[in-house]
Each structure stands twice: as structure tokens, then as C-alpha cells.
Amino acid sequence: xxxxxxxxxxxxxxxxxxxxxxxxxxxxxxxxxxxxxxxxxxxxxxxxxxxxxxxxxxxxxxxxxxxxxxxxxxxxxxxxxxxxxxxxxxxxxxxxxxxxxxxxxxxxxxxxxxxxxxxxxxxxxxxxxxxxxxxxxxxxxxxxxxxxxxxxxxxxxxxxxxxxxxxxxxxxxxxxxxxxxxxxxxxxxxxxxxxxxxxxxxxxxxxxxxxxxxxxxxxxxxxxxxxxxxxxxxxxxxxxxxxxxxxxxxxxxxxxxxxxxxxxxxxxxxxxxxxxxxxxxxxxxxxxxxxxxxxxxxxxxxxxxxxxxxxxxxxxxxxxxxxxxxxxxxxxxxxxxxxx
Length: 340
Known about the structure:
By secondary structure, the protein is α+β, with helices and mostly antiparallel strands. The protein is built from ten helices and six strands; from the N terminus they run βαβαβαβββααααααα. 36% of the residues lie in helices and 6% in strands. β2, α2 (52-64) and β3 (71-74) form a beta-alpha-beta unit. The longest helix has 22 residues, at 190-211. The mean pLDDT is 94.
């Protein structure tokens, strides 16, 4: 999720929306072929809990047990004219990188870089330079290139024999759902909005049909495809239904999708990373172009997230031959006001 400053935030809804491609696409790999070898404690993952793209990385990191190998910085969900900032930390500085704004790490990598300042971002701690903001590739590399640092019992989130199917599902989910809600929400014309909104619900209905008879999107275990769908579904009723006008129906009104996303939410590594307070305050207070009052709605009621889902009746093994992650690390717990 990119931050373009106050002018960029006010522009949403007034000009055509186009998602920027990641400008910094270096990869952190086991062989270090881009100059960035996988090393424990060398890099810092910078995220916003409000951002669905960053939340993919937060979930993957936790499921794979990379907390000690890859430290995490959490940005304030409310940006100012310099974008993502560390005002949640003492003295407004990230305690590891020593910077007030993520933009400082971007500038150390390249001055006058295009594309804004986005999360997730990985920063090289020794140099303070940005390594990558490639949100599409980052989690795939965490699942594969970082395998020597995975916890014992970590799930295989991108199994070799399923990758073609996972990639195909993720491409459809990205186009129509992950990015589709933004194209609807930031549309500046009726036809543009209606096309995007119709595409969102057309794909959701197809996904519901797929999930009616199987617990997970691909195979009988959690994969990267489930992570990518979850981060949109978990935000849907709280922000996309109202704020982005994707209001044909709520996820809670779709029996299959509501059970599916509750199943994941109640799985360790998913719901325990979700902060509804950060999510709502970011969308409603930052996107002043489509919510000029900045008023944050009180709802929806979150209590349903913890109700039985009965998806286990479909079988499936959430972690395959592995095990669930342990308790959330100290200091990374979601505050009470952001949880059901």
C-alpha cells in the first residue's frame, strides 16, 4: 500500500486509479544472487497492519516462524505528507532503524525514486537502505528462499507440485478481488465503478462455489492463495463494503465465504495479526478524497469472528504435515481495541 502524501490521498476518487508496480524488486535469496543473501537478523520488515498487501507478509512471517530471523516494524496507520511514519514507537523513531519515516530508507536507496513509499518494505539494517517493496514476490520468497530459517513444523505455503494451480488462483483473486475493491473504491466515473464492483462480486461468487466443497483454495492445506484472499475478505465488511462501495452484499451474508474466512481467522497466524482499529482508521481517515469528514464508523460488530464455522467437517489439514505457530511474540500482540 503506497502513501503519496496528503495530495495523493485527496486525489483518490478524483482521478483514474492505477496501481503502481513495485519499483524496488531486488530479491533476498538463499544464494544472494541480487546481492542480498538470506541472513538471520540482517533485515527488518516494515508493515502497516492496515494494509492488505503488508498483512500477507505479517501472516507468512508468523506461520513460518521467522520472527527471530526477520524483525518487524509497525507503522502508524495514519500517514502524513511524508507517508508511513513510526509514531507508534517511543520518540517517533523505529528503535532498530533509528528513522522517523520509512521514506528515509527509500531515500538512502535512491533519491527521487518513483512510485511513492509503500509497505511491505524490507530494509537492510546495517546500511539502513531499502532492499525491496515487491509485495507480490516477497511472501513467495519467505516461503521458499528463507526455508533454512523456518521454524520446525512450518507449513509449505507454496508447494512445488501445486504452484501452477496456486499461481492461477492468485492471479484471478488479485485482478478481481484484491485490486478490484480498490478499482471500485477509487473509481472516478460511474461506468468504471460498476465494472469493477461487478467484477468483485462475480469472482467472489465463483470462489464461494469453489470453497463450498473444499476447505482451502488449493489442495487440503493452507497455501499462499488462502493468505492473499484472506487479507481482502477480513477487511471487506469493515471498509470495502461501505468506504469502497462494494455493497451488493457483505461477506457475513455469504454462508460459504463467511465460514471460510472465520476458519482462517481462528487459525493461529491469521486472526492474531489483524487489527481492525488500524484498518478502519487508515481507510476512513487517510482517504480524504472519498471520505472528506474523516469520520470512522463504529461498526461492524466483531463478535461473530469468534463463532463456530464448522469448516473442519470438510476435512483438510491446515498445516499439512506441520504444526501451528506458537504464541504471538511479546510486543507484537494486537491491542485489545483492534480485536473482536
